[in-house]
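Can't attach files on this board, so I'm pasting raw text. These are the components:
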Amino acid sequence: MSDLLEINDLRVHFPVKKGLFQRPKQYVKALNGVDLNVRQGETLGIVGESGCGKSTLARSIMGLEEPTSGEILFNGKDYMNADAKDIHHMRRDVQMIFQDPYTSLNPRMKAGESIAAPLKAYKETDRVEKRVRELLELVGLDPDTDYHKLPHEFSGGQRQRIGIARALALEPKLIICDEPVSALDVSVQAQVLNLLQDLQKKLGLTYVFIAHDLSVINHIADRVAVMYLGKVMEKVDAGSFQSQALHPYSRALLSAVPVPDPSEERRLDRIVLNGELPSPADLPSGCVFHTRCPLATERCRTEVPVLEEKHNPNQKVACFHTG
Amino acid sequence: MLKVDNLHVHLDTSDGIVKAVDGVTFSIEAGETIGIVGESGSGKSVLAHSLMRLNPEPPATYPKGKVYVNDRNVLQMNKKELRHLRGNQVAMVFQDPMSSLNPVFKVGKQLIEGIQAHRKRPKKEAKEKAIELLRDVGIPDPESRIDSYPHQFSGGMRQRVLIAMALASEPKLLVADEPTTALDVTIQAQVLDLLKQIQHKYGAAILIITHDLGVVAQLADRILVMYAGRIVEFGSTQDIFYRTAMPYTWSLLRSIPTAGAKRRLIPIDGQPPSLIHPPKGCNFEPRCPFATDACRHIDPDLEPRGDGHQAACILSASEFESIKEEVASS
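---
Top answer:
Structure tokens for the assembled complex are below.
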């Protein structure tokens, strides 16, 4: 499979302005050298806690954030140095599904209008209504009754379906799903996850799926990237993530998830990480995880580990202690 | 120590009366942990708030039922008695640590205020108590952190402060409403560990409300499953997970993604019913894969399914067991 999206050494730093002349004194390093590739037709899951940079990454891929350095290649083309017209064209190939179905839809626009909006933005005004009806049907809504309803008349899960239909309107190649099910109840979450999988099969979509819920990521992703403080700590096939993740942060994350099985949970030895996430404006030296890592040594405090192959070609880990 | 008897809570809205809690009966023993699970709108928060009468009145009314804390009915208490109840006997930890602390006062001042409200004591003593509480909930360097403002704490630390506040007067029951929902998993693990330690040290009963079945599996001794304002199943954690006796609980457990096996998820179709005009028969009937014609007319009561295990379904334990496989494979 070829790479649809390639991200090389991506950095996004936000200046923190202080003092009388508002000169930037400090930088919040939201992304600090991220390398990722997304293959055609796969789902790349991105996990990490708040502040790890996963949403900044999503926004950068969408072209909503200006990277400080690095490159984003979409279909082999440089995204960042393209002119406005090219970006306009590329952007229709990359769409986004947002976390909160309650705030990502205009409360005064009918469902059909919301879904038609991207079509109008790209001047595809032919047979808009027919297209919207097809899209509504595709995501499991009723084109006859739901077309003219307002967002408040839908439940959370149905609203997320409208968001999905809207993202699909321009027939994109890549969809960035930023926590698409975290605001939904479990029974409805399953409906939306199934829908996303069906659509992927039917339309050959590629997903970058961002979530903090590891069981959701495990379920939907083909490969998983674990992020911590603006860096990728580990990349691994989703199938072996649970059992073979090597990075101490990945292991801690996995063990922190409460398992919905009373016997298993009480048997498991949990790794409870001490302390809190350091500020991304004042990153620790060496390995960014060393302040909370149970395996940290002197070397971790001074040297930065690079993401390298461990054990098999499908697993890359940034840690000195994983052999 | 706490007994809820046939409690009804109605919310008076412009669209009609929402029967948020519709006949709930259960009790909590001293020192145990009970988990309430249910989807949004199932009435779990309204139920928990009723225990301290924290639902704003209006719109909330309590047309029927009783809530006993140490043999006194909370629903008949006057303001003074309620003040004594809240904090002293029952304390609450809220979901969002960002909005539950006053941003313009130092954490220590808010904590000391709480300590002095419940028992008159000199300021110096109250301050010592505050430091001790902060240390108990695992805040490093409490002597200096006591002079910090809430914004100087992270989310997990703020939740620890709220737990310290709730513990200020050593309540017999701690009600935690989604205490870890706003937190990251590694911080959630820390806070859940803390709740267990606190329970051990203070001997308080804990009522934890959550939508996360993992959290209750880990923490609770007994679990109460709510659907559409009612308890639909109640039993030990083992009963609920391994001897599930009610289609809703069963469907809920099947809808969560589990590690390892990549099977297709089985969602619960449809939506929870309107609580203004609930269906005639069983509330779950429209979404239930086991439903028969009878379910449209019969509204099942919570009935015993074994020692301390109750479920609300017209199917008996053995009937449910025998057709479960068949429904699962269809």
